[in-house]
Automatic annotation (TrEMBL):
It comes from the Archaea. It comes from Methanocella conradii (strain DSM 24694 / JCM 17849 / CGMCC 1.5162 / HZ254). The chain crosses the membrane at residues 20-38, 69-88, 109-140, 152-173, 180-197, 243-266. The keyword Membrane applies. This is ABC-type transport system involved in multi-copper enzyme maturation, permease component. Pfam families: ABC2_membrane_2.
């Protein structure tokens, strides 16, 4: 178990650093900054003259303007990273010469996933906190710092969990085929299907298991009428959490299943 954990951690660390130094990362970060700047300024402009009254915390509720677009940006990054992480090295046949034996494919696969998930956690935190910072700069501070920290931390966790599910799905498709166009297309279609069409008309019950549908239901779980309950401070946090926990467990199990299936398929050759 210890050699396995050590190998996985080493690969995860290497993958995290590799992605962090991608030439496109500063470009993406700058685009995210511009979006956050415009969103914060636009939200503040729309709220001029609005009082605090007895309503929800206006600043926290402001995330309802941007959480869908934020989810799309973060998911696009996750799809790209997941679809290309395994596929590129399989495509140019460099996998067998990059690694030092004895190192199993399961170590490599799991390490890649953990490294990419760690990067997505950093990227999501940067994106979401930047949006919140812009709203603070252009409008006002939150009514309660602890409430803001609690709900924003949960928001970051949910977004990262959703992106990790997208990573597991994209890496699974990458194991099935070496065709990067096919893998990317499958990942994009399944991840963003419900952004464009009505998935229930075509996919039936399977539409409930798309990453975006699960993400939407985590933000506003069934049993709570507010579709953005996480950002509405009139909905007690513990009520939202109790409603979201079963779905959180389901998302974790779905991600684990995809990860294990992909790992088994990738490990058909026992060692590299």
């Amino acid at each position: 178990m210890r050699p396995f954990a050590g190998a996985v951690c080493a690969i995860a660390r290497q993958e995290f650093v590799r992605v962090l130094t991608y030439p496109l990362i500063p470009v993406v970060a700058f685009i995210v900054f511009l979006i956050a700047l415009l969103d914060g300024a636009g939200y503040a402009s729309g709220l001029e003259g609005v009082g605090i009254s007895n309503g929800p915390d206006v600043l926290i509720f402001g995330f309802t303007r941007s959480w869908e677009s934020t989810a799309m940006i973060c998911s696009i990054v996750a799809v790209f990273l997941g679809a290309t992480s395994i596929l590129y090295e399989r495509w140019n046949s460099s996998l067998n010469v990059l690694l030092t034996k004895p190192l199993y494919r399961r170590d490599y696969y799991m390490g890649k996933f953990l490294g990419l998930s760690g990067f997505m956690l950093l990227f999501n935190a940067f994106t979401i906190l930047l949006v919140g910072l812009m709203m603070v700069v252009f409008y006002m501070e939150p009514q309660s710092g602890s409430e803001f920290a609690l709900r924003v931390s949960s928001y970051i966790f949910i977004t990262t969990l959703s992106c990790s599910l997208v990573l597991a799905l994209s890496m699974f498709f990458g194991v099935l085929s070496k065709n990067i166009l096919l893998v990317t297309s499958l990942s994009v279609i399944y991840t963003f299907f419900d952004w464009i069409w009505h998935p229930e008309r075509i996919m039936g019950g399977l539409s409930e298991f798309t990453p975006q549908q699960l993400y939407f239901r985590l933000i506003g779980p069934k049993g709570i009428t507010d579709p953005a309950a996480l950002f509405n401070t009139l909905v007690p946090f513990d009520r939202w959490l109790n409603a979201a926990v079963p779905l959180l467990i389901f998302v974790l199990l779905e991600m684990l299943a995809l990860l294990l299936i992909g790992m088994c398929l990738f490990s058909r050759e026992d060692s590299v």
